[in-house]
Design a protein that fits this description.
Number of strands: 2
Strand content: 5-15%
Low-confidence stretches: none
Shape: elongated
Number of helices: 4
Order of helices and strands: HHHEEH
Oligomer: single chain
Strand order of the largest sheet: 1-2
Helix content: 55-70%
Distance between the termini: 94 Å
Number of domains: 2
Length: 102
C-alpha cells in the first residue's frame, strides 16, 4: 500500500498563516482556502505556538523573546502604566494644594 505524501511547511509559513488568521476581518477558513491547506492546520499551529516551552521563542510586538522575557515585559508594562497613573494623580494633588496656598 502506498504511503500518502504529507506536506512539510516552514515555521515562517505556519507563523504567517496563524498571524493572517488572527487579523480582524479574516477567518481561519478564508486564510486556509487562500493557502490551499485545511483549516484544521491553522488551529493546530495556533495551539502549538501558544504552548511554547521556556526554551522556545515567542513573538511580542513583532520581536522575538524567550517566554520568561515576554512575561517580564508584560509585567513591566503593567507596572509602568500604574506608575504613570500615580504620577498624574500626584501632579493634580500638587496643583490643588498649591492653589489653596495662594
Amino acid at each position: 500500500m502506498a504511503r500518502k505524501k504529507t506536506n512539510s511547511y516552514t515555521e515562517e509559513f505556519r507563523r504567517q498563516a496563524v498571524y493572517r488568521a488572527d487579523q480582524p476581518g479574516k477567518t481561519a477558513r478564508e486564510v486556509a482556502d487562500e493557502l490551499g491547506i485545511h483549516v484544521g492546520q491553522i488551529y493546530n499551529w495556533r495551539t502549538q505556538f501558544n504552548k511554547l516551552s521556556k526554551n522556545q521563542f515567542k513573538t511580542v510586538h513583532n520581536m522575538e523573546y524567550a517566554s520568561d522575557e515576554a512575561a517580564e515585559i508584560k509585567r513591566l508594562k503593567m507596572e509602568n502604566a500604574k506608575l504613570k497613573q500615580e504620577n498624574e494623580l500626584l501632579k493634580k494633588a500638587t496643583a490643588y494644594f498649591a492653589s489653596l496656598n495662594k
